[in-house]
Amino acid sequence: MQQYYIQNNTLNLKVKKSPILVRAVMFGLAFSFFVFPVLGVISGIAGGSGLHFGYFIAIGIFSLIGFYTLRISLWNTYGEETFQITENKIIYEANYGWFKDGKKETLILNPNYFSVQAGYEEDNESVLVIASEESKIESVVKMPTVQLEELIMILKKNKF
Question: Which residues of the chain fall short of a pLDDT of 50?
Fold first, then answer.
């Protein structure tokens, strides 16, 4: 599976999906972190203990944990990074499928493309790094090193 594609001056890197069982467990956990605290509050109120301030704290904490778990689940399912490469800047955006991170603009003159090994050595996976003397952008998407080297050759050849 090719994890990248280039269209005009836009480079898209797609995350390799996690196994279906892992994704199902992660989405189940995210759903549980949202629903179970609310059900606990409803059952507590129905049991006659009344509405307490601690309920709101518990719902808030578990909602934050649930949101973070949902974000990781979405990234492992739909994750994609977009790099818009222009003459003197790169615009980076992470897409989680259901929502996107804010765009980050970085001024880079004469970009240098290279790979950095990520994860275990025997996995042979790397991430793309776009750097110049002033700044550096490192991708999060892990790709097979051979595929990434092919991408780097294309980027250098096309002089993005």
Answer: none
